[in-house]
């Protein structure tokens, strides 16, 4: 453990002094890049790998319920695959961070982005002739871990793999602007942040959809571009700028 964080008293003092300090893994631009990748992964599985939502399980539950209602029980069971993979990814992302933190080498956040890059590179080699479930499980797993790991951007709750809450937050911000004029500046700034996340997700999805006929299975490699940018920045922070802060937990955890 770094020297300055050997005691709980030192840890608590650091938390108080840096309550408004945000680690690199909490920076807003990191979340924007991750959201571009999230949009790409979501549209990849939906457009090219069995029309399954990899990053938002509500759609899969809706499809499962509809299949049961229509008496198509085999189809309903099909949607248990991404649902189960998502749960397992969430469980793993709750267990592993502590073990990675104990290594005092890099953060779990950084390691996860590296894992995503390697996994998506491998996915690009899986042909369409193979069962879609293989790719669905891998990407559902990754999306669950990313969503559960990256929770707040500079103190604002954010999701990088779906946009439902961002749409909700825009509505809340507009209501605050109307009701509380003294909060207008703050509400507009928050609304803009959520709007930019939605646009980032859409950009990723549109890019994958447009290039899918050309790149086919390898379309998922497009997501490696924003993920690689994130990984380089996060790794540099872990090894240089925030080397003494590896024991600090990001906000929201």
Summarize this entry quickly.
This protein is mainly alpha-helical and 253 residues long. The chain has a domain at 26-158 and 204-245. The chain is 68% helix and 2% strand.
Give structural attributes.
single chain; 253 residues; mainly alpha; two-stranded antiparallel sheet; 10 helices; 68% helix; globular; disordered N terminus
Note down, in words, how this protein is organized.
- This protein has a domain of 175 residues.
- It contains ten helices and two strands, in the order H-H-H-H-H-H-H-E-E-H-H-H.
- Helix content is 68%, strand content 2%.
- It has a two-stranded antiparallel sheet.
- It has 253 residues and is an all-alpha fold.
How much of the residues is beta strand, in percent?
Answer: under 5%
N-to-C series of helices and strands = HHHHHHHEEHHH
- Poorly predicted sequence stretches spanning 5 or more consecutive residues: 1-5
Helix share, percent? 55-70%
Q: Shape from CA axes?
A: globular
- So how many helices? 10
The mean pLDDT is 90
The radius of gyration computed from the alpha-carbon positions, rounded to a whole number of angstroms, is: 20 Å
SS elements, strand count: 2
Main sheet? 2 strands, antiparallel
The spatial strand order of the largest sheet comes to 1-2
- Supply the helix-strand structural class: mainly alpha
